[in-house]
Specification:
The chain has helices at 3-6, 30-39, 55-67, 114-128, 143-151, 181-190; strands at 11-15, 18-24, 70-77, 80-89, 98-105, 133-139, 155-165, 171-180. The protein is α+β, with helices and mostly antiparallel strands. It has one domain (3-190): Aminopeptidase (3-Layer(aba) Sandwich), CATH 3.40.630.30.
Amino acid sequence: MSSSELRSYPRFVFTDAGKIEFRLMAQADEAAVLAFAQKLPAHDLLFLPRNISEPKVLAAWIKEIERGAITSLLALRGAEVVGCGTLVRDPLSWSPHVGEIRNVVSSDVRGLGVGRALSQETFALALGAGLEKLVVQMTVDQSGAIAIFEGLGFKAEALHRDHVKDSSGRTHDIVVLGHNVALVRAQLEAYGLPDAVQH
């Protein structure tokens, strides 16, 4: 069963940016997501492995969604995409028990609760997928995003110095945070709270 089958969409939350709809991304969203990605500051794209503001990269992303390797949620305010949360898994790798969360939100809605709500929803989607460990990565200066994930129980695991290079050729450090879902679940079960970590 896929993680998207465990949670139903659309879902709605109310933030300081207004009513936000979360729904699964599909091929029909390609143009709207491209418009969203092309408005993002270049620095926001650095922690993603590929530049999603490029049409060919976005087309490959859609194919990965259709193949089932990626589950992507869109955050919409009205018809406008204001955020995207993605859960990436590779069941054929040495780490089929690990999922990576990648989130990005529009600068228009920063500080208004959209990033927090998107992170919580993507985290819930990941928990519903039955993964044992989750990771996120971002540039070290993204203190707001780091704080959101630390609030969800993620802890710093690694620092990759000079790991990404921006369009001007300047390098940036990446921090990797991890969440050992299986360990937390086992601890809660030991305390008699087995349902505390669930989707």
